[in-house]
Fold this sequence. Notes:
Blueprint: E1 12-16, H1 25-38, E2 43-47, E3 60-62, H2 68-74, H3 79-82, E4 84-86, E5 91-94, H4 103-108, H5 116-122, E6 129-133, H6 140-147, E7 151-156, H7 160-176, E8 190-197, H8 201-217, E9 222-230, H9 233-240, H10 245-248, H11 253-263, H12 265-271
Helix pairs in contact: 1-11, 11-12
Amino acid sequence: MNLLQNASNKPFVITVASTKGGSAKSTNAANIGAFCAEHGLKTLLIDTDIQPTLSSYYPLDYQAPGGTYEFLHFRDVEPSHIISKTKIQNLDLIQSNDPSNKISPMLRDSPDGALRFSLLLSKIEGYDLIIVDTRGTRDISVDMSVLAADVLFCPILPHILSAKEFIRGTIGMYHDLQTFADFGFTLPPLKAVINCVDHTNDVKFVSEQLHILFKTEFDESKTLLDFTVPDKVAYREAATFSVPVYQQSRSEYKTIQQLCSLLMPQFAHNHFVDKE
Length: 276
């Protein structure tokens, strides 16, 4: 099977993005991907970050010789050359292999740079879900990942500087990309979630201000989910042991289940049901 054959069923694409580094994008991508894969969705993770946390999150059964660079540069490439297999059933990975950041200037110098990813993802066969992890800054590789998505998922840390960067950077990027609507593109709905939440007064205050902001300043294309991801040591321990967080701490099973259901309600009834 050639990777770029036309697919009869386009996979659902989630892009995880934040222009603020350290917002747990890779952790969320890894946990969502594993949960979906273990609940029957054939899932592909794509790591586009030059600091490839997601690429090394789970151990591999098969490591492909290539990765994101070959996927974007050569366009027509055999799946086995770029798609690695994790030890989690149904969960595959295209690793980031561009430490010197050759992809960004290549895309900027290409007439189809910001749009190429959309075409390539639409032609991938054999997956129900694709999750794209991005770098924590504004870059053409982030633009292309947003334009290719069906949902833009944005974790926000409940700190005042992180909230301000989300408004300036991530929302600013989203507004800038509206120009592609003139060329027939529809931007994906933005779904944000407050991440790493504890019970301090500062976190409570910032969270309340974010909810007010979304209700009063943003249109219906941007939603702050009425849901939070807690700040628990289990998330760091799970990354240390290379397992999904709900395997490290069963109390987080419901957290990831609910997050997946909110991001992908079309799969909730048939897939995101309790296995316990």
